[in-house]
Amino acid sequence: MTIPSEPIGSIPRSPELLGAVAAQESGQLGDSAYRAVLDRAVRETVEEQAAAGATVVSDGEQRKPSFVAYPIAGAAGLSPDGVVIPFADGHQRQLPCLTAGPFRYQTHAESYVRAARQCTDLPVKQAVIAPSALSLLYPAGGIPEYSRDAFLDDLADEAERDIRGCLEAGAHVVQLDFTEGRLSLKLDPSGQVLRDFVELNNRVLERFGEAERARLGVHTCPGGDLGSTHSLDVDYAELLPELFRHSAGNFYVQLASEADPDRVLRAIADQLRPGIRVFVGVIDPIDPRVETAEEVRDRVLRAARYLPVEQLGTCDDCGFAPFADDQSTSRRTAFAKIRARLEGTALAAEQLGVGFPSARDGREVPAAVD
User: Collapsing DSSP states into helix, strand and coil, what is residue 93?
Assistant: First the structure.
């Protein structure tokens, strides 16, 4: 038995990559040279995670323009005036709005999996956007000759293809990013939007068999962008019962930045069911201070007071730069935090008397015996 530890998603892009993105968009950098920079960014990101001791890695979303928009980047039939996401510090992000159908992904995440697997023999995790988030693209006023029901049918098919492609490409696990879940309770306190979101996601998840769903997960957090959040003030207890209705084997729950983690852990314990694993956030990506391994250890031990160790894992609260232009956290800081997560999880595993994965060979290392 081990306490696994996994990344959530994005890692800050290097100055070289950010410069290459701008140069490519302005026509000053050709496609071949741009792809070479992307390939180098992915390889460096994967290798730095391995050097930090990771036994499960990701590409750090180096190729994504953002965690939410990657499937539709460059698509026709979009206008820029979609749903606005307000953050606590006053800045906003705005989604595009669909103007015509049929809805199709332009990029599927399996391409990210294949590229990352060329860089490592370690298991590769892939984050994909939940269909519930992309459902926000459809305008309230509708689209002539393309109903919302037709759109949701197309969206479900595309989301299934996105997930299935990642599994077939060899992803260790596929994680649905569901940051809009907590935000929905701010927009609709009745909870009906949240329930609709979960039903749509399950419409896709239930197309997979039991063994496949064991490799699928759902991530929730209050959003993290430019050092701020969009829904940290929303009561987590209202979200969790709906979150755990997802037909998935893994749940990734932001916790390190919560004011009352014990209350959240009690709520998680109330929803826990056999056969699932809960990865608790032990690193706050938007806190500029790097946590110590001992702090992480204590956060894991706290979680183990409420959750069975065999159903426990650790993760970061959120990605470090979900939007590519977010430079509020440096790569150096992100990797220091990742190292603290891994070292702290190993310390907790030892104290709990269970094994922990070895970064050297991927095998379980038994806990020390006095």
Answer: strand
Cβ 314 vs Cβ 296: under 8 Å: yes
Calculate ∠ Cα 79-81-84, nearest 5°: 140
Q: What is the pTM of this model?
A: 0.93
For 145-159, b where at least 16 C-beta lie within 10 A, e where not — what string? ebeeeebbebbbbbb
Cβ contact 167:213 at 8 Å = no
CA atoms within 13 A on the CB side of 220: 32
Domains of the chain listed by start with CATH number: 5-365 (3.20.20.210)
The percent of residues above 90 in pLDDT, for the chain, comes to 82
Q: Is the pLDDT of residue 243 over 50?
A: yes
Q: Dihedral sign, CA of 348, 239, 179, 216?
A: positive
Contact status, residue 255 vs residue 302, Cβ threshold 8 Å: no
Asked if residue 67 lies in contact with residue 127, where contact means CB atoms within 8 angstroms, the answer is yes
**Predicted confidence band of residue 153 (pLDDT cuts 50, 70, 90):** very high
- Tokens 């696994």 -> residue: 4
* Contact criterion met (CB below 8 Å) for 323 and 288: no
Closest alpha carbon to 219 in 266, 167, 174: 174
Strand extents, DSSP E, the chain: 5-6, 78-79, 84-86, 92-94, 97-98, 125-129, 173-177, 216-220, 250-253, 277-283, 312-316, 356-357, 364-365
CA dist., res. 55 & res. 364, Å (int): 11
Beta carbons of 23 and 3 less than 8 angstroms apart:
no
* CA atoms of 230 and 339, how far apart (whole Å): 27
Joined tokens for residue 176: 């649905």
